[in-house]
Amino acid sequence: MSEKQSTYLFTTRTSKELAEKIASHYGQSLGAINILNFSDGEFEPILEQSVRGGRVFLIGSTFPPADNLLELLLMIDASKRASAKSVTVVIPYYGLARQDRKDKPRAPIGAKLVANLLTAAGATRIMTMDLHADQIQGFFEIPVDHLYASSIFIDYIKSLNLDNLTIASPDMGGAKRARNYAGYLSAEVVIAYKERKKANVVEEMFLIGDVKDRNVVLIDDMIDTAGTLCKAADILMEKGAKTVRAMATHPVLSGKAYENIQKSQLLEVIVTDTIPVKAGLSSKIKVLSCAPLFADVMRSVHKHQSISDKFII
């Protein structure tokens, strides 16, 4: 069989826009899925074509609501029961990744639970991008292709031709990521140290490093309420930075995130399309597509070719 005949691409409803871009770069149309909806909110996704003996790619980010994860699980089960030879689950944004450890008494490890659910449903391979914690790969007993948005962001930073470039991490957890970016860009590094009293609320923040008269780019894996990034931008400008930009792979953008970004001292905020961004709510947000990267890796996986050249950081 030809590649197009033996591979099948399907998507969850909320990731359709990104999936269509991935399919276009891959050179194949998305397969049809019929969603049966029941009056109580239950739904049933049904594959509208045979996948027997083929490689199935299921594309879907698992951001809230939980129905997005459930829909993906049901699609995996449907593919397995339809005799697909392999089921590769493409999860651009891996939801519940922040629950990667038991950091307080009687707390769940949500990222591990999701890994168990995906495997139990019948996934044979996972493909994702910029996990909140790299060790989540170890929660799986099946292959995990952990991609990085760095190849997308580094090219964009280079196109800006910024002098006196400094890469900043908005917290200690992102220090390694910031150092890696700085190494590729021959830039300096600064780190913001933050203290939280509760989730999504930054109590205090301190800067480690000098940013006077420098163009600063904040690097993070996700933007939720944008409170951390906006506070970091304020401190950087107070310390004499010339400009401050922010880059984050996953635009969660909950609560007053759009408003916070628009009112902030950030010159622009660059994100990818792992999660759909609402149009028109902030003129500062620029979206770069991760579709070409996913399509290239999917093609390489299908042809059993190495994907090591896709890992910049």
Automatic annotation (TrEMBL):
It comes from Elizabethkingia argenteiflava. Its EC number is 2.7.6.1. Residues 9-122 form the Ribose-phosphate pyrophosphokinase N-terminal domain. The keyword Amino-acid biosynthesis does not apply. Keywords: ATP-binding, Kinase, Magnesium, Metal-binding, Nucleotide biosynthesis, Nucleotide-binding, Transferase. It is an enzyme of class 2 (transferase). One of its GO terms (biological process) is purine nucleotide biosynthetic process. This is ribose-phosphate diphosphokinase.
